[in-house]
């Protein structure tokens, strides 16, 4: 498999390290290297690039992947690798017969039956690789090792310990958080990593994002690159998906919201959490990327302790972090957006209404409440909150500074349009507002707008 998915940008250091490592393996000093990082960070893309470079240097490259969906037999990544090697000229040698336990097509009895059989199998794999590497150097690529079965990882470790005198490079990848969720997998990958190189991929900086923007648009645009870097925080997959979304919008073909590829990655990470935890995170997500524990509890209708328990699980999955005393912050703004977008419309509207009411209560006596934020929540609560949204927006224009005035003015057109389509409110002078009965918030009559946290 040759490199794909667009140019590899911002990984010059990693490519230098791995290129030197592959060169050493080609000279007979084989070894293992692991690439780790968050979903979308570019692990597989880096492996593809190194596979292409190794092939250009005369290496025979074979891939194996562990599958998270389950159902694969033990040793599946190794079965894929050995099948690929067997299918090449000279691929079968005297050691191949001993591998029949892994490869039924060789006519063997199937998987090993006990400890002795297992280690005999491991020895057969190592002997086969030694013989194959005598003909040409090998690069064995094992992707997504966080999803591998224990037997596959045990075989990885045993092979890695035998590579010192072989022309064999064993290159693997795994997601950091998923690996840590299983103690057995975490321990196995830790042992494997200590036998060789471990590269932890970081998010891209502004310079790398500028290159991607230039390649996508054909022009240098530092301002757009900064905007995209801020929105994606440098996750390469998120950067590319956002660039694709912006290109689709230019053609009038884009749907609003988080790009589909980004949503898929985030939902995969959320699937690691208990459904009850996800539900509480969704309630908090309507506030935005950062929120207080107490406000999230009010919106969800649970205790602060329940939010803290959910936060503990989300922290372990690196979806949430501390933002100060009593405050939490999603690991990425797009995580919050995806959580909120996945809420059923009725429940999302209810959460926004609860947020607006809670923020108003908290700032009832505040001389400078966050009125634009209250307006946002009333608007998102449905057409019944449109009048409240307009009132808060207009109050923000009157009472806020220049920055708040600009924000609220940019939204006021939408809010007035909603008010014109349904039950509305007339704003009188000096901050008085008249509402029709249909616009009164639940739980009481008119109350002056106030704001959050």
Describe it for me?
There is one protein chain. The chain has 453 residues and is an alpha/beta fold. The protein folds into four domains: 12-200, P-loop containing nucleotide triphosphate hydrolases (Rossmann fold, 3-Layer(aba) Sandwich), CATH 3.40.50.300; 206-256, no CATH class; 270-343, Orthogonal Bundle (Arc Repressor Mutant, subunit A), CATH 1.10.10; 346-453, no CATH class. 53% of the residues lie in helices and 11% in strands. The chain contains 19 helices and ten strands. It has helices at 12-26, 43-56, 76-86, 115-135, 150-160, 176-180, 183-194, 206-217, 222-232, 236-250, 260-270, 275-285, 293-300, 304-316, 333-341, 345-362, 371-380, 386-399, 402-421; strands spanning 31-37, 60-65, 138-143, 168-175, 197-200, 290-292, 320-324, 327-330, 425-427, 433-435. Strands 2-3-4-1-5 form a five-stranded parallel β-sheet, with helices on both faces. Strands 6-8-7 form a three-stranded antiparallel β-sheet. α12 (275-285) packs across α15 (333-341). Mean pLDDT is 81; it is low at 400-412 and 415-453.
Q: Level of helix content?
A: 40-55%
Strand content: 5-15%
Biggest sheet layout: 5 strands, parallel
Radius of gyration computed on alpha carbons: 28 Å
- Please tally the helical runs, counting DSSP H or I stretches of 4 or more residues: 19
CATH homologous superfamily of the largest domain?
P-loop containing nucleotide triphosphate hydrolases
Q: Identify the CATH architecture of the largest domain.
A: 3-Layer(aba) Sandwich
Q: Tell the overall outline.
A: elongated
CATH class of the largest domain: Alpha Beta
| Count of distinct structural domains | 4
How many E-type strands? Answer: 10
Low-confidence stretches: 400-412, 415-453
Query: What distance separates the N and C termini?
Result: 52 Å
Here the CATH topology of the largest domain equals Rossmann fold
